[in-house]
Specification:
- By secondary structure, the chain is mainly alpha-helical.
- It has a domain of 42 residues.
- It is built from two helices and no strands.
- The longest helix has 38 residues.
- The chain starts with 15 loop residues before the first helix and ends with a helix.
- The model has no long low-confidence stretch (mean pLDDT 76).
- Keywords: Membrane, Transmembrane, Transmembrane helix.
Length: 74
């Protein structure tokens, strides 16, 4: 991973206590208001996905630049 990247993945911690409201809400057929815990899990998943995509793009860009520079130096 690019150590200078401002995007850091892995900052999300899932526990059984944070998943229980999601499982109960889905088990009831998603009836009623979405529990706040579920909203936080969804938001965390979106943010983590954006960070992961940013890291992949940065890594690919860095690899392409390294490959372009290496043959030019030979």
């Amino acid at each position: 991973m690019n150590q200078t990247s401002s995007l850091v993945t892995g900052g999300v911690t899932l526990t059984a206590a944070s998943l229980v409201p999601l499982i109960e809400w889905v088990a009831t057929g998603c009836k009623g208001v979405m529990p706040p815990e579920v909203q936080l899990l969804v938001a965390g998943a979106i943010v983590t996905s954006i960070h992961a995509i940013g890291n992949v793009v940065a890594a690919r860009t860095s690899a392409k630049q390294a490959t372009a520079v290496a043959p030019a130096q030979q």
